[in-house]
């Protein structure tokens, strides 16, 4: 049986919305301000669920796992693409 991680509502919101973005970027909502914002981001960083990137933060593989997802695979530029010949 898999144990679910205990996430605060703010942590869950940030991880789940970042997982929906193609780049996995974590963008806190405007309603999460000041000390609360710093506390949530610090907790996510300490657990290894997010990491600094380009002046912000992105989800890590562990962050995806914390919400029961896997990092989406980027499209392979060398693989053949499906083409419809008419």
Characterise this structure.
This protein is α+β, with helices and mostly antiparallel strands and about 90 residues long. Helix content is about 35%, strand content about 10%. It has 3 helices and 3 strands. The protein has helices spanning about 10-20, 35-45, 60-65; strands spanning about 25, 50-55, 55-60. It has a 3-stranded antiparallel beta sheet. A hairpin with a 2-residue loop joins strand 2 (about 50-55) and strand 3 (about 55-60). The radius of gyration is 16 Å and the shape is globular.
Provide a compact summary of the structure.
The chain has 86 residues and is an alpha+beta fold. The chain is 36% helix and 12% strand.
Number of strands: 3
How are the strands of the biggest sheet laid out side by side? 1-3-2
**How much helical structure, as a percent, in the residues?**
25-40%
What is the residue-mean pLDDT, rounded to a whole number?
86
Shape: globular
Number of helices: 3
Q: Tell me the distance between the termini.
A: 50 Å
Rg, Å, rounded:
16 Å
In this structure, how is the largest beta sheet organized? 3 strands, antiparallel
Structural class: alpha+beta
